[in-house]
């Protein structure tokens, strides 16, 4: 009985709240409509007062009406006097309610009068919109409004910003508001102390935009303010130079991870077998095309799996490129051991044949390989931008290297491979089938090149010529780091990647590579076996 009584009381309270709230909401909407209609009354001075009255409401629903007024799209109906937003449709106007934005009737152009504005009213509209957006419930809108003030450097926005800063609870938005206020202060007539405080805030922001603002202010300032602005701009310049160096290092490491993926398989085949495989780049290309085929099938039949398409492509690319590598070794390479020139010519011919085969199947044009959402976009660290796809490729390259080293150090196959590398005859005498080690090694190196193709499909054009872009760099990495040494391949790839990126701004991309090549030639004259030479009887003989 008591429960039933409480239920009735709750229901009565709910109905009472509806009875009170609905009229209140309607009254508020009517009041806003009246304020919007006031934009059509009186002269320019009256219109400016109406704009300010709308801004003081703090209600973001009036933004469309103010924007339409600034764009000369706000009209008053001759019949009834209601203010509306218009859209031109041929010789007629479609009327839109400025509060609800609901489309209404279509009328002749003569049925409405344009609400005229001048430059003073446009400035008032701009200030009102800025103030309303600064009070928006969405942090992103408040952030955008503050950034607009930062760019405009409008001193008239200072009172609006002061009110917004006082009420702001989001730390990131408040910081941008303070920076926007600082730019406005430098353009204002405020005292020296206020401007010195603004200079300190802009110094903390750093960045090219803050530096430009400070330099522009220093050109017109005098005395203590001029010195403070110049010192702040110089400090930001040094900071930007440091971040630019860090950005170049990141670009170099990113390029190094690509070179590592492309060269790591070559380091195995070249190191164990001594075969100069000119078709290694085509194994990379086959891995990229495997990714394209996988994504094409997924788009057609299983679109829900697109986000994991690269994960599906990795083992398939390894099997495709590795299987073709084993077939090449068993069918051609094994008959040419000890004849390096003929091996080089044979693998070069194979590379041309593979390119033409792919060109015949897929065509000569670039193929589109999509990027999953988790690899899209970028983030910033200070003044340095890091893209997610490059970051994932760097991590992926290090994971591949770590797995390969585990295979080399912790498995029977890795032990046999190292034995053949160090002394082929002794390994054969101990019962190791060196011919199968050669075949599996060539397949492993080709398979890893196929995996590299999966990664490269995210940053390069997938075309029949994809592998040709990396074959020379791969050989440079292997020779520089030490033939057959995985640690040497890692250090060589990262060193050459960073060196290339630091040389490019001064020498250009092509000349930069030539300088690196000359350096490697000179380095090999001093250390013929590279930075990390393998040890073994056969190697040292």
What are the key terms here?
alpha+beta, disordered C terminus, 7 strands, five-stranded antiparallel β-sheet, 541 residues, elongated, 21 helices
Report on this structure.
The chain is of the alpha+beta class and 541 residues long. Helix content is 70%, strand content 6%. The chain contains 21 helices and 7 strands. It has helices spanning 2-37, 44-57, 63-70, 119-134, 139-152, 158-167, 171-186, 192-205, 207-220, 223-273, 280-301, 309-331, 340-362, 388-410, 412-422, 424-429, 434-456, 471-481, 486-507, 509-526, 537-540, and strands at residues 74-77, 83-89, 92-96, 103-108, 112-114, 378-381, 384-387. The strands form 2 sheets. Strands 4-3-2-1-5 form a 5-stranded antiparallel beta sheet. Strands 6-7 form a two-stranded antiparallel sheet. A hairpin with a 6-residue loop joins strand 3 (92-96) and strand 4. Helix 4 crosses helix 5. The radius of gyration is 35 Å and the shape is elongated. The relative contact order is 0.08. Residues 15-28 and 536-541 have low confidence and may be disordered.
Strand order, largest beta sheet: 4-3-2-1-5
Which bin fits the share of residues in helices?
Answer: over 70%
Straight-line distance between termini: 103 Å
Give the number of DSSP strands: 7
Residue-averaged pLDDT: 81
Topology record:
Blueprint: H1 2-37, H2 44-57, H3 63-70, E1 74-77, E2 83-89, E3 92-96, E4 103-108, E5 112-114, H4 119-134, H5 139-152, H6 158-167, H7 171-186, H8 192-205, H9 207-220, H10 223-273, H11 280-301, H12 309-331, H13 340-362, E6 378-381, E7 384-387, H14 388-410, H15 412-422, H16 424-429, H17 434-456, H18 471-481, H19 486-507, H20 509-526, H21 537-540
Helix pairs in contact: 2-4, 3-4, 4-5, 5-7, 6-7, 7-8, 8-9, 8-10, 9-10, 10-14, 10-17, 10-18, 10-19, 11-12, 11-13, 11-17, 12-17, 14-15, 14-17, 15-17, 18-19, 19-20
């Amino acid at each position: 009985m008591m429960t039933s009584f409480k239920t009735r009381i709750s229901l009565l309270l709910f109905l009472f709240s509806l009875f009170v709230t609905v009229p209140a909401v309607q009254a508020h909407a009517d009041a806003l409509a009246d304020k919007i209609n006031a934009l059509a009354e009186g002269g320019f001075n009256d219109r400016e007062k109406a704009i300010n009255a709308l801004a003081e409401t703090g209600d973001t629903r009036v933004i469309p009406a103010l924007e339409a007024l600034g764009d000369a799209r706000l009209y008053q109906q001759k019949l009834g006097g209601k203010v509306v937003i218009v859209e031109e449709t041929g010789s007629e106007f479609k009327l839109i309610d400025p509060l609800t934005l609901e489309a209404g009737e279509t009328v002749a152009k003569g049925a409405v009068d344009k609400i005229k504005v001048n430059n003073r009213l446009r400035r008032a509209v701009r200030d009102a919109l800025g103030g309303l957006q600064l009070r928006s419930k969405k942090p992103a809108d408040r952030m955008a409004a503050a950034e607009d003030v930062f760019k405009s450097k409008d001193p008239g926005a200072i009172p609006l910003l002061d009110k917004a800063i006082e009420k702001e609870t989001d730390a990131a938005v408040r910081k941008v508001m303070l920076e926007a206020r600082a730019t406005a202060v430098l353009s204002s007539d405020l005292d020296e102390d206020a401007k010195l405080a603004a200079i300190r805030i802009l110094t903390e922001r750093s960045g090219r935009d803050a530096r430009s603002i400070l330099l522009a202010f220093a050109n017109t300032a005098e005395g203590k303010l001029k010195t403070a602005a110049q010192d702040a701009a110089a400090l930001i310049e040094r900071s930007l130079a440091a971040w630019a160096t860090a950005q170049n290092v990141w670009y170099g490491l990113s390029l190094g991870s690509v070179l590592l993926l492309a060269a790591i398989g070559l380091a195995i085949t070249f190191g164990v077998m001594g075969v100069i495989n000119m078709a290694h780049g085509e194994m990379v290309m086959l891995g990229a095309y495997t990714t394209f085929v996988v994504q094409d099938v997924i788009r057609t039949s299983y679109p829900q799996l697109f986000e994991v398409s690269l994960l599906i492509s990795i083992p398939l690319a390894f099997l495709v490129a590795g299987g073709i590598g084993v077939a090449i070794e068993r069918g051609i390479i094994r008959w040419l051991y000890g004849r390096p020139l003929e091996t080089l010519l044979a693998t070069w011919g194979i590379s041309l044949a593979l390119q033409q085969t792919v060109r015949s199947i897929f065509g000569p044009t670039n193929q589109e390989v999509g990027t999953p959402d988790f690899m899209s976009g970028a983030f910033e660290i200070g003044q340095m931008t890091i893209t997610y796809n490059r970051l994932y490729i760097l991590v992926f390259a290090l994971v591949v290297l770590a797995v390969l080293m585990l295979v080399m150090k912790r498995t029977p196959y890795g032990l046999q491979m190292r034995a053949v590398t160090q002394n082929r005859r002794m390994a054969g005498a101990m019962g190791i089938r060196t011919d199968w080690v050669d075949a599996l090694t060539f397949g492993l190196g080709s398979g890893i090149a196929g995996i590299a193709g999966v990664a490269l499909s995210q940053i390069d054009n997938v075309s029949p010529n994809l592998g040709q872009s990396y074959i020379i760099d791969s050989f440079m990495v292997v020779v520089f780091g030490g033939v057959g040494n995985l640690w040497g391949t890692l250090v060589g790839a990262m060193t050459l990647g960073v060196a290339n990126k630091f040389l490019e701004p001064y020498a250009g991309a092509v000349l930069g590579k030539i300088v690196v090549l000359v350096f490697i030639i000179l380095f090999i004259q001093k250390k013929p076996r590279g930075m990390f030479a393998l040890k073994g009887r056969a190697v040292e003989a």
